[in-house]
């Protein structure tokens, strides 16, 4: 029973999720590249580059041959990049979207119960002194709010007394908005900030709907701890680990499937 529980715990750990995700994405990258690229043309372009590199080594004492080979290497590199550009685009766009979504779970940890954290609210200049928060019973304020006039910001220090997903209500005049808040130690979907407008920033940094355009509240943010993954005693951000493992998996599957990259 204990062994089964340990196995389930490991399978749902951030490290195992990153390993599995990296292997799957490495395979999908190679298959998608092979399906969308002209494999025959890429093979010819790579062979021509190898031939010119070999000519540089064999005829390094003949300047005119070497210079001609370098020119053909530059042209061949441009030809190869042209052949690889669209397949790489087909691979990068969906993978970027997947990374953004997975970062909601692996990029940060929930705030720990009974540990202090900060709630920051940016407002329009005229509304800074008219901001208040309404907290659920499980979230308590541990210090008076701090106003930062230069940044049009108000900051509260809070503490969660119980694990769970909660909502904090922020009001400014007649307008109000809620911000999600995760307390605990599991793998919830975390949104560090809720933003007004700024479509592209919201796509990459927020998992919540945009604040209303008419609201004087520009953003509501929670300071979640950054998650790191322990690899043989070295703490690493999950995205760096993902890129390393997915590249290794990609090269392995490239050889196994005979796909030219």
How would you briefly describe this protein structure?
This protein has 261 residues and is of the alpha+beta class. It has six helices and ten strands; from the N terminus they run ααααβββββββαβββα.
Description:
The chain has two domains: 17-107 and 237-257, no CATH class; 116-222, Immunoglobulin-like. With 261 residues, it is an alpha+beta fold. Helix content is 48%, strand content 24%. The model is unreliable at 1-8 (pLDDT under 50). Helix 2 packs across helix 6 (238-257) and helix 3 packs across helix 4 (63-106). A hairpin with a 2-residue loop joins strand 5 and strand 6 (175-183). It is built from six helices and ten strands. The longest helix is centred in the N-terminal third of the chain and has 44 residues, at 63-106. The chain has a five-stranded antiparallel β-sheet with strand order 3-4-1-8-7.
Indicate the topology.
Elements: H1 2-11, H2 14-36, H3 39-58, H4 63-106, E1 116-123, E2 131-134, E3 139-148, E4 153-160, E5 164-172, E6 175-183, E7 193-195, H5 199-205, E8 217-222, E9 229-231, E10 234-236, H6 238-257
Antiparallel strand pairs: 1-4, 1-8, 2-5, 3-4, 5-6, 7-8, 9-10
Helix pairs in contact: 2-4, 2-6, 3-4
Strand order of the largest sheet: 3-4-1-8-7
The domain tally reads 2
C-alpha Rg (nearest Å): 26 Å
SSE class? alpha+beta
- Total number of helices: 6
What's the helix-strand series? HHHHEEEEEEEHEEEH
Tally of DSSP β-strands: 10
Strand content: 15-25%
Estimate percent helicity: 40-55%
List unreliable stretches of 5+ residues: 1-8
Biggest sheet record: 5 strands, antiparallel
Average of per-residue pLDDT values: 86
Report the principal-axis shape: elongated
State the distance separating the first and last CA atoms: 46 Å
């Amino acid at each position: 029973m204990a062994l089964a529980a340990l196995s389930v715990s490991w399978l749902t750990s951030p490290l195992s999720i990153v390993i599995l995700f990296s292997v799957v994405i490495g395979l999908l990258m190679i298959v998608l590249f092979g399906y969308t690229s002209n494999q025959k043309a890429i093979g010819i372009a790579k062979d021509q580059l190898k031939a010119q590199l070999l000519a540089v080594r064999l005829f390094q004492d003949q300047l005119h041959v070497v210079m001609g080979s370098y020119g053909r290497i530059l042209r061949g590199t441009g030809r190869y990049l042209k052949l690889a550009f669209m397949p790489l685009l087909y691979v990068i766009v969906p993978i970027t979207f997947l990374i953004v979504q997975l970062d909601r779970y692996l990029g940060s940890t929930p705030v720990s119960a009974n540990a202090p954290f900060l709630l920051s609210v940016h407002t329009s200049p005229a509304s800074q002194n008219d901001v208040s928060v309404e907290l659920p019973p499980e979230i308590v304020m541990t210090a008076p709010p701090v106003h930062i006039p230069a940044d049009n910001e108000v900051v509260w220090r809070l503490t969660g007394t119980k694990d769970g997903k909660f909502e904090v209500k922020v009001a400014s005049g007649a307008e109000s908005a809620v911000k999600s808040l995760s307390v605990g130690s599991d793998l919830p979907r975390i949104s560090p900030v809720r933003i007004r407008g700024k479509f592209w920033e919201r796509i990459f940094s927020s998992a919540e709907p945009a604040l209303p355009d008419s609201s004087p509240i520009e953003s509501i943010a929670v300071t979640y701890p950054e998650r790191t993954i322990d690899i043989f005693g070295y703490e690493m951000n999950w995205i760096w680990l993902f890129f390393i493992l997915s590249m290794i998996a990609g090269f392995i599957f490239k050889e196994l499937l005979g796909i030219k990259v």
